[in-house]
Design brief:
Chain lengths: 743, 219
C-alpha cells in the first residue's frame, strides 16, 4: 500500500492528483517487491563483478562464462506469500516464473533447485502446506521438463505463519544462440507471446509486499494459476525463434510481478525509450478492464521487442507451438508510458516516474533487544543426555536432518539426461552437453567435457543467532558443498527472506546479513549476479528469522567422474580441518533441548579458503573417494550421511563405519564433539593405497587432519565406547522418518 | 525384419520433454536420427524405426497420452506397427501406445498416488524383440523411472511381458515394466533407457536397448 508521503511524491512527479488507475499502477510499481525500495541502498555493497560475469543485476538472470565458453544463466526467486495462501498454485507458479527469467536471456532452463521452510511438522496445516507445495513444484517442474536436482526442506516453528518457498533455476545458452538483454538497443514493436491474459494474480506484487494479518482467504485471487504445458511450449517456441537465423530479437522480458505493466515499462525505460500499448490487442481469456490487462499476473507470457518485419515468422513459430502472439504496442521516443484501449488513450504517465522514481529508503535499524539473551545461552551448560543412542537417533530422524527421499523422489531429477547424481548429496552435478541446435545435443562424448555444480543453502538457526556470521556461513557452506564434488566456485544468486523492513530490528538483521555476505564474498572472491529480496514475511507483528538463501554455481573442468559417497569397506575415514566443540545454533541443541542460542564464531577464513582448493583437488584427482562437509547435525551425523547416501545411486548401498574416540577430547562431554558443528571441517574417505599420498599432501599444504575411523563390511555404525547401531536400521529410520511425520 | 534402414525417427508432440537426450542416446548408438513433428503425416514411414519419447504430451490433459492419439503422426505409427516396423514407446510414449491400442492394457496412477523418480532394477523377460535382442534373457539392468502414471494394468488377455521390475515400485500388475504387441515389433516401457546410456549418468545399461535395435536392423 502506498503511504501518504508516497502519494505526495507521485503528485509532485506528475503535477496533479493521480487517478484511481494511476494509483494502482504506482502501488504495483513502487511496491517493495517490484522496486526494492528498502533494500536497494544496502544491496549495492555486495560485490557484483568478476571476469566471468557477463550479465549481472539489471538483467532477468545473471549470466557467467565457463572455461569452455559455455554461458550459464541463473537466478533465484521467492514465492513465499502466495504459497502460504494457495500452496499448490503458489509454488507451481514460483517454478514457472523463475524458469522464464532464465529463458529471457535466451538460455534453455536445465536445472531447478528448491529451498523450502515450513513451520512445526506436527501441525496439520503444515503437513498440508508441505504436501501441496511439493505437489505444485513436482507437477509443474516435471511436466515442463526441467529437472529438480537439489533441494532442502526444513521445519521450524519460526515459519508457522510464513512459509519459505525459494526456487532457483539454471539455464544454458545453446551454442549458436545469441544472448538477449532486457535492455533494447533500438526501437521496435512490442510482441506478446504465450498464454492468454486473465484476471488471475491481480495485485500479486502488492500482496507480496505486505505482512499477513487475520483471514488470508480473501487474498486468493492475487495468486496466479500455472499451466506447465503452455510453459513448455513457450520454452521451445522462444528458443526456436531465437535460433532462427532470419529473426532478430532486440530484447526480451517475461511478464512476472505486476505483469504487462512492469515488463513493458521496465524494458522500455532500460533502453531509454517510452512505450505505447494497446490493451485491446492483448490476447485474453475474458473481458478485462485496461488496468486489469496491465496488472494481471497470468502466467506463461513473454514480451519480445523486434522489428515489424520479423513478426510474421515469430507468429508462425508461436502458432506451431499453440501460443498466442500479437503486436500489442511499440517503443517510442516520447518518454511516456501510454496505454490505449483501441483508439482511446487511458493512461499517460512519464515512464521515469513509474519505473525509476520509487523512493529509496534508508530505514532505521536497531539491534534487537532479545539478541543478547539469545547469545547468552551457553550450549555447553546443557547436560549430556544419559541415553546416548536416543540423543543421536533424535538428531538424525529429526525432520531437518532426516533423509528427504520422500520429497525428492517426487521431482523428476533426471530429465534432459545431464544429471549425474540423484539429489541428496552436497551439490548437484550437471554435465553440460554441447548443443548442436536449440533442441539437439552433440552426440559424441568430447574429451574435455565440462560440468557445473549447484548448491542451495540457508540456515535459519545460524542467521537467527547471529545474522552477520550466519550470512558468512551460508556463503561458505555453498562453496564447501561444491568443493566436495570437485567444483570451482564462479558466482552466487541470493534470496533474502526477511520480516517487515519497517521494523528497525528486522532492518538491523537485514543490514547485518548484507555485511556478512559482503565480507564472505570479498574474502572468497566471488560475486553475486542475481537475486531477490522477500520482505514482509510477518504475521500479526511477528517476523521470521533472517534467512539468506544462497545458490552457488561452480564448474568442474575437465569433468572426469562423479565422486561417490562412502562406497567400499576398508577405507579410512578422515576429518580434514579443525575439530572443536561448536554447538551454537546447532541442530542437536534444538532437537534435544528445544533451544537456540550461543555465540557463533567467525570462521577461520584462511583455513576455509585453503580447504576449498584442497578438497577440490583431492576430489578431482581421485585421491579421496568421497568428501562431505560437516554442517547441521554435527560431526558424527555427517559421517552417517556419508555412510548412507550411496543408496540413491544406481549401484550404491550403505556401508558400515567404525569411528574411533580419538577426536572426543573429553569423554564425559562426548556430546560436545559428536554433535559439534565446527567449521571448516570435512569428512573424506581414502582407500589404503592412497593414504600415504593424502597424508603427504596434507603436510605439504599445512592442512590439519585426523584419521577418525574406517569403513567396514559389517552392518554397523559405531562410535567407540559411545554407541553402536546397525547401519541398516539407522538408514531405515533416517530414510523413513520424514514420510511418517508428514502422514 | 532387417530393413537395413538405420534412420530412427523421434516423434515430438507439444509437451514431449525427453527428445533431446533420447536423440543423443540413439545417435551415440550409431544411428542417424531425426525429429518428426506430430503434424507431419507420412514422414515417419521413411524411417527404419520410430521412438516416441517421454514427456507430457499435451500436458497429459484429459489422461496421460490420450490427446496424442488423435494426432496425424499416430495414423502412420499404427500403419507401421501393423507392417512390423520396430517402434519403441518410452514412458509417455508407452502411455500413448496403450491409449491408441497399439499395445494392450493401460497405465494407471501409481499406487502411492505420487510421482516417483528413482533408479530401479529390471529383469529382461523377453529378448526376442528389436529392443532387447542384444540382451541376455533374465539379465538385470538398471534405469531410472520418472512417472506418476506407470502402474500397468490389463484385464483379460495378458500381454507379452518384455521387462519386469525386480522390486515393484508403483503397483504394476505382475510387476510389469514393459511389454510388446503380439508381433513383438512394438515395445513400450516406463523406465528411461536414455537416462542410463552414459557412464556419467550412473549406468550404461539403457544403451543396450538402442544397441539391440542396431543388431536387429543389421541381421
Amino acid at each position: 500500500m502506498l503511504t501518504s508521503e508516497e502519494i505526495e511524491r507521485i503528485k509532485k512527479l506528475i503535477g496533479r492528483e493521480p487517478t484511481s488507475d494511476e494509483v494502482m499502477i504506482f502501488d504495483a510499481m513502487w511496491s517493495e517487491h517490484a522496486s526494492y525500495k528498502s533494500s536497494k541502498l544496502h544491496l549495492r555493497k555486495l560485490p557484483r563483478e568478476s571476469d566471468k560475469v557477463i550479465f549481472g543485476f539489471g538483467e532477468n538472470a545473471g549470466v557467467v562464462k565457463l572455461k569452455d565458453d559455455s554461458l550459464i544463466a541463473f537466478k533465484i526467486e521467492s514465492h513465499n506469500h502466495p504459497s502460504y495462501i494457495e500452496p499448490y498454485s503458489g509454488a507451481a507458479t514460483g517454478v514457472g516464473g523463475i524458469i522464464r527469467d532464465v529463458l529471457c536471456v535466451s538460455a534453455r532452463p536445465i536445472a531447478l533447485a528448491d529451498f523450502l521452510c515450513f513451520g512445526n511438522i506436527k501441525d496439520r496445516k503444515m503437513k498440508y502446506l508441505c504436501e501441496r507445495v511439493v505437489d505444485g513444484i513436482s507437477d509443474y517442474g516435471n511436466s515442463v521438463g526441467v529437472p529438480v536436482v537439489r533441494g532442502q526442506t526444513l521445519f521450524y516453528g519460526f515459519f508457522d505463519h510464513n512459509i519459505i518457498v525459494n526456487v532457483m533455476c539454471v539455464g544454458k545458452v545453446p551454442e549458436g544462440v545469441k544472448l538477449i538483454s532486457s535492455k533494447p538497443s533500438k526501437k521496435g514493436k512490442l510482441i506478446y507471446i504465450g498464454g492468454k491474459t486473465g484476471r488471475d494474480g491481480i495485485g500479486g506484487a502488492s500482496m507480496a509486499s505486505q505482512s499477513f494479518e487475520g483471514d488470508l482467504s480473501e487474498k486468493k485471487p492475487a495468486v496466479q494459476i500455472g499451466d506447465p504445458f503452455t510453459e513448455k511450449c513457450l520454452i521451445e517456441a522462444i528458443l526456436e525463434i531465437l535460433s532462427s537465423p532470419d529473426i532478430d530479437v532486440i530484447a526480451m522480458q517475461d511478464m512476472g510481478a505486476a505483469g504487462l505493466l512492469n515488463s513493458s515499462s521496465e524494458l522500455a525505460s532500460k533502453g531509454g525509450f517510452g512505450a505505447k500499448i494497446d490493451v485491446s490487442r492483448v490476447p485474453k481469456r475474458q473481458p478485462l478492464l485496461p488496468i486489469e490487462f496491465l496488472l494481471s499476473e497470468s502466467q506463461e507470457r513473454m514480451l519480445l521487442v523486434a522489428e515489424e518485419k520479423h513478426f510474421p515468422k515469430i507468429k508462425e513459430i508461436a502458432q506451431k507451438w499453440g501460443l498466442d502472439c500479437e503486436i500489442i504496442g511499440e517503443l517510442t521516443d516520447t518518454g511516456l508510458y501510454e496505454v490505449f484501449d483501441g483508439e482511446k488513450k487511458v493512461i499517460s504517465l512519464p515512464i521515469s516516474a513509474i519505473v525509476d522514481s520509487a523512493p529509496v529508503y534508508d530505514r532505521p535499524q536497531r539491534k534487537p533487544s532479545w539478541i543478547d539473551s539469545l547469545r547468552a545461552v551457553a550450549p555447553e551448560k546443557f547436560p549430556p543426555p544419559k541415553n546416548k543412542e536416543d540423543a543421536f537417533l533424535k538428531v538424525i530422524t529429526s525432520p531437518n536432518f532426516a533423509g528427504k527421499k520422500f520429497i525428492f523422489e517426487q521431482y523428476d531429477w533426471g530429465v534432459l539426461g545431464q544429471t549425474c547424481s540423484a539429489p541428496g548429496g552436497d551439490a548437484a552435478i550437471i554435465k553440460l552437453n554441447k548443443m548442436r541446435s536449440f533442441n539437439e545435443y552433440v552426440s559424441s562424448e568430447e574429451e574435455n567435457s565440462i560440468a557445473i555444480a549447484i548448491s542451495l543453502d540457508g540456515n535459519p538457526l545460524y542467521s537467527f543467532v547471529d545474522p552477520y556470521v550466519g550470512a558468512i556461513l551460508t556463503v561458505a557452506e555453498g562453496i564447501r558443498n561444491i568443493s566436495c564434488v570437485g567444483a570451482e566456485p564462479i558466482a552466487i544468486t541470493d534470496n533474502l527472506n526477511f520480516g517487515n523492513p519497517e521494523n528497525p530490528e528486522v532492518m538491523w538483521e537485514f543490514v547485518k546479513t548484507i555485511e556478512g555476505m559482503e565480507r564472505a564474498l570479498k574474502e572468497f572472491g566471488i560475486p553475486v549476479v542475481s537475486g531477490n529480496v522477500s520482505f514482509y514475511n510477518e504475521y500479526e507483528g511477528v517476523s521470521i528469522p533472517p534467512l539468506p538463501v544462497v545458490g552457488t554455481i561452480g564448474e568442474i573442468f575437465p569433468f572426469r567422474s562423479v565422486p561417490k559417497s562412502f562406497f567400499d569397506p576398508g577405507s579410512f575415514v578422515i576429518a580434514v580441518g579443525k575439530i572443536f566443540p561448536q554447538l551454537a545454533g546447532s541442530l542437536y541443541i534444538y532437537v534435544n533441548f528445544e533451544k537456540v542460542g550461543g555465540i557463533l564464531p567467525e570462521p577461520d577464513f584462511e583455513l576455509e579458503k585453503k580447504l576449498f582448493s584442497f578438497i577440490r583437488y583431492v576430489v578431482s584427482e581421485g585421491i579421496v573417494d568421497s568428501a562431505h562437509d560437516v554442517s547441521e547435525g554435527g560431526i558424527v551425523p555427517a559421517i552417517f550421511e556419508c555412510a548412507v547416501s550411496g543408496v540413491f545411486s544406481p549401484s550404491g548401498r550403505e556401508v558400515g563405519v567404525k569411528i574411533k574416540k580419538n577426536f572426543i577430547k573429553d569423554e564425559q562431554r562426548w556430546d560436545l564433539f559428536v554433535f559439534s558443528e565446527c567449521y571448516p571441517l570435512y569428512i573424506v574417505s581414502v582407500k589404503p593405497e592412497n593414504l600415504e599420498k593424502f597424508i603427504s599432501l596434507c603436510g605439504e599444504n599445512g592442512i590439519p587432519y585426523q584419521v577418525i575411523g574406517e569403513t567396514v563390511e559389517s552392518d554397523i555404525f559405531e562410535v567407540e565406547s559411545i554407541f553402536s547401531f546397525k547401519i541398516s536400521e539407522l538408514r531405515k529410520a533416517w530414510e523413513e522418518s520424514l514420510a511418517r511425520e508428514l502422514e | 525384419m532387417p530393413s537395413g534402414n538405420f534412420k530412427v525417427g523421434i516423434i515430438i508432440f507439444p509437451g514431449t520433454n525427453c527428445n533431446i537426450e533420447t536423440k543423443k542416446a540413439v545417435e551415440s548408438a550409431g544411428f542417424e536420427a531425426e525429429y518428426i513433428w506430430y503434424e507431419e503425416k507420412g514422414k515417419a514411414k521413411r524411417f527404419g524405426a520410430v521412438i516416441i519419447p517421454g514427456g507430457f504430451s499435451y500436458g497429459d490433459y484429459l489422461r496421460a497420452g490420450k490427446m496424442a492419439v488423435f494426432s496425424p503422426v499416430m495414423e502412420d505409427i499404427i500403419e507401421m506397427s501393423e507392417k512390423g516396423n520396430p517402434i519403441l514407446g518410452i514412458c509417455n510414449g508407452f502411455q500413448i501406445l496403450c491409449e491408441s491400442k497399439v499395445l494392450p492394457g493401460t497405465l494407471l496412477m501409481n499406487i502411492g498416488t505420487k510421482f516417483i523418480c528413482k533408479w530401479v532394477e529390471l529383469e529382461v523377460v523377453d529378448n526376442q524383440t528389436p529392443f532387447t535382442c542384444a540382451i541376455e534373457k533374465g539379465e538385470r539392468i538398471k534405469m531410472p523411472i520418472a512417472h506418476k502414471f506407470g502402474n500397468y494394468f490389463y484385464e483379460d488377455e495378458s500381454p507379452n511381458v518384455v521387462f519386469r521390475y525386480v522390486i515393484n515400485p508403483n503397483g504394476s500388475k505382475d510387476s510389469i515394466a514393459g511389454i510388446s504387441n503380439a508381433k513383438k515389433n512394438v515395445v513400450g516401457l516406463m523406465p528411461h533407457p536414455e537416462r542410463a546410456s552414459f557412464k556419467f549418468l550412473g549406468s550404461e545399461d539403457g544403451m543396450k536397448i538402442f544397441r539391440s535395435l542396431k543388431k536387429w536392423l543389421k541381421e
